[in-house]
Specification:
Elements (H helix, E strand, L loop, with lengths): L1 E7 L7 H9 L7 E5 L8 H9 L5 E4 L9 H13 L3 E4 L2
Parallel strand pairs: 1-2, 1-3, 3-4
Length: 93
């Protein structure tokens, strides 16, 4: 299953360019989750839900790596967790 994730840091920002890119990459609109939260925040409700729902064989599509995390350490840890679970992260832009 293709799962898309978009994130903007503030309510003033519009995630439409991310969601449009994810849909062009084959993710169904209903399978795209969006958070309005700083990447530095440990808890992002939609992303936390995605992490619970992802299963082996799923692909998590994002537009840029910084949409997942601003910390390289967190990104490496998250990448290892996804790999262990058989989830393929895919950056589309």
């Amino acid at each position: 299953m293709l799962i898309g994730y978009a994130r903007v840091s503030t309510a003033d920002q519009n995630p439409a360019h991310q969601t449009n890119a994810l849909m062009r990459a084959g993710v169904a609109e209903a399978d795209i989750s969006t958070d309005t939260a700083s990447g530095a925040k440990a808890s992002r409700p939609e992303f936390d839900l995605i992490l619970k729902l992802l299963r082996g064989g799923d692909t998590l599509k994002i537009t840029r790596l910084d949409r997942l995390s601003r910390s390289v350490l967190h990104l490496v840890t998250l990448g290892a967790e996804l790999r262990e679970r058989g989830v393929g992260p895919h950056v589309i832009e």
